[in-house]
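Researcher: Let's run the pair from yesterday's discussion. Sequence first, then tokens, for each.
Model: Starting with the first of the pair.
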Amino acid sequence: MPYDPYKHHRRSIRLKGYDYTTSGIYFVTICVQGRHCLLGEIVKGEMVLSPVGQVVADAWCWLAEQYNYVMLGAWTIMPNHMHGLLMLVDGKGSSRTALTSGNAESIVPAKVKPLGQLIGAFKTVSTKAINELQETPGNRFWQRNYYEHIIRNEREHRAIEQYIYNNPATWSEDKLHPDAPSNRFNLEE
């Protein structure tokens, strides 16, 4: 299908003019391509990860291991998406990089990556590992976009944290459930 700018335009959900390297807490939702339930299943209100879901969990944790200015808050993996609180702290960027001689690691000064680049790194690392696991080189795993919300106060933080913790128990009502009639977050395919 040829590109039609009137049909195929993408509206950014990012806050115009906001610096996404700013220290703060960000709520993100990332969906599997086509919202296929590949990450596991809900059993008696609890999420049971598939091998692919475990790869996603490991890749999410990798973000905080890779970048010392990233901390993870509450997060959960659902059958076809994940929610997480990602915190950027202190503004002093560096990353853990292997030295070229030997296996030792060192802290190398680096520019703080904005939220979108961090999510991009997560998607790249997880997709590569999933494709290796499934022997499907080059396959796309995640939807192109993601939902984000800047946490503005403690009340909002607590409410979103509770939403994340309760998400597996409320899966049948989740707007990202494959049988849901609409999409609460208006995520683009």
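Model: Moving on to the second of the pair.
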Amino acid sequence: MLLILVGVLLPSVRRAWHQSRLTALLGEIQQQAALVEMYGNEHNDLYPFAAFDTVGACSAKWYEALALEGLLDDRAVERASVFQLSLCMVYDARRMEPGNTPDRTVWDESPVPVYRRQTRLPASKGMLAWLFTWPQRSPWPPRWCCFPDSSPGPVAMADGSAMIGRWMDFLPDGEFVYDDVSHVGFPVITTWYGVEGRDR
């Protein structure tokens, strides 16, 4: 009888834990978005730009630029590391146009300064995304994008708002179109047309 009761309650407990985790992460990503705003206010509207040789490193370690400014302490840096800055915020948008993408992944290209004032549709542009989700059937979390069975995760938009959604929710036209060579077209992370493109 006890085993049956545990079997009935376990899925509900798991769902409640997952929802509380998402709620906590939503609050965290909103805090990170506020810090990005503060960084831009002190750096002529620049998105966090750390001293790295590649777009991938600059995007993954965006929080180091904030730490250098004293906006994050060591513990906060560890928490921020679960979020990724969109490559659109540190990469030339002209290289994210169909037919004009590089012949290798954009992660290996050199970063360029990108400014908040370049964002034409701030409420529709994803800026920070949570890297991982926890599907029930996998012991290891896949990336938030772009698995068919990925769970929802928090995303901070360029206007400072945040929401929870699946990567499919951020496809501007509802269709997943990407360049398999350059890896442009992934929702939020490497969307077409860079910082001026729409994520939802």
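Researcher: Give me one sentence on the second I can quote.
Model: The longest helix spans residues 2-42.
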